């Protein structure tokens, strides 16, 4: 029996491919006006915030 630690990532990869998840094509742009913390920030809400265009 295969372990869940191996099964879950494989199942997720398969599901993402079957449902054409946009993340598989690369970074997803923020929708217009949406604010998000920079991925390199040390904590949520830290400047600079990214704003979708």
Task: Write a concise keyword list for the protein shown above.
alpha+beta, 28% helix, single chain, two-stranded antiparallel sheet, 53 residues, 1 helix
Relative strand content: 5-15%
Integer count of domains = 1
Q: Write down the Rg.
A: 16 Å
Distance between the termini: 48 Å
Summarize the structure.
With 53 residues, the chain is α+β, with helices and mostly antiparallel strands. It contains one helix and two strands; from the N terminus they run H-E-E.
Describe the structure in your own words.
- The chain starts with a helix and ends with a strand.
- The protein has one helix spanning 4-18, and strands at 35-37, 49-51.
- The chain has one domain.
- The chain has 1 helix and 2 strands.
- The chain has a two-stranded antiparallel ribbon.
- The chain has 53 residues and is of the alpha+beta class.
- Residues 30-53 are annotated as: Disordered.
């Amino acid at each position: 029996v295969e372990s869940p630690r191996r099964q879950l990532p494989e199942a997720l990869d398969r599901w993402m491919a079957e449902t054409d998840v946009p993340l598989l094509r690369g970074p997803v742009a923020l929708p217009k006006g949406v604010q998000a913390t920079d991925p390199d920030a040390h904590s949520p809400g830290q400047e600079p915030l990214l704003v979708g265009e």
